[in-house]
Amino acid sequence: SRQEPHRPRGTAADRLDHRGGARVPYIDRLILSSDDPAIIAVAGEWGCEAPFVRPAELAGDDTPSVPVILHALDALDETFDLLVLLQPTSPLRATEDIDACIGRCRPGGAPACVSVCEPETSPYWTYAMDAGGHLRPLVTPPGGSLPSRRQDLPPAYTLNGAVYAARVPWFRERRAFLGPETVGQAMPPERSVDIDTEADLKMALFSIESNS
């Protein structure tokens, strides 16, 4: 995230071996895409390949992930059946989370799988408010009646950004991880921290230190 100044040793690098893809048996190559020499150097120290430098036109603050992934696939000297996107802003994911997503995409399974978690606030308790202050539910629960207790609400999930997996031909055609055939893999909230602010970073570091 550009909102939080990059800290190679505090976020991505020292999680590559323990929480990233380095210990996942189904991952053949762990590739970094970056334009930052410092991040590339630290990743190399931790066994992550950086066989290319990301082009400047794909390194902007508003650059989406899809063209970056396609560039990486095209820049490599071999082809792969499956790709897995592991964003460094999700350092608390475990190898079992990555394994599970890959497993859902193996032959006979789904073409894509993304990690999800239960949201802090149920979408059934979110509202739009008009100019007069009147509230209108954004999501109508099945049956149309809104339960008064949280535990009675229908299950809901949100993307947590930790793991995105897809078969390469399917991804090249769809240019997205999400589609009608995509399945979700639930992760617990304690491993679903997504670093976007200083507070998120402190929470992640506290969790890592507490479990060391």
Q: Bin the strand percentage.
A: 5-15%
Structural class: alpha+beta
What is the first-to-last residue Cα distance? 25 Å
- Biggest sheet features: 4 strands, mixed
Number of helices: 6
Indicate the overall shape. Answer: globular
Arithmetic mean of pLDDT: 86
Estimate the helix proportion, in percent: 25-40%
From the alpha carbons, calculate the radius of gyration and give it in angstroms: 19 Å
The number of strands is 6
Strand order across the largest sheet: 1-5-2-6
Describe the structure.
The structure is a single chain. This protein has 212 residues and is of the alpha+beta class. Helix content is 25%, strand content 14%. The longest helix has 13 residues, at 198-210. It is globular. The chain has a 4-stranded mixed beta sheet. The protein has a two-stranded antiparallel ribbon with strand order 3-4. It has helices at residues 13-16, 37-45, 65-75, 95-104, 168-174, 198-210, and strands at residues 82-85, 112-117, 127-129, 135-137, 158-167, 183-186. It is built from 6 helices and 6 strands; from the N terminus they run αααβαββββαβα.
Helices, strands, pairings?
Elements: H1 13-16, H2 37-45, H3 65-75, E1 82-85, H4 95-104, E2 112-117, E3 127-129, E4 135-137, E5 158-167, H5 168-174, E6 183-186, H6 198-210
Parallel strand pairs: 2-6
Antiparallel strand pairs: 1-5, 2-5, 3-4
Keywords:
two-stranded antiparallel sheet, 212 residues, globular
Short description:
The protein has 212 residues and is of the alpha+beta class.
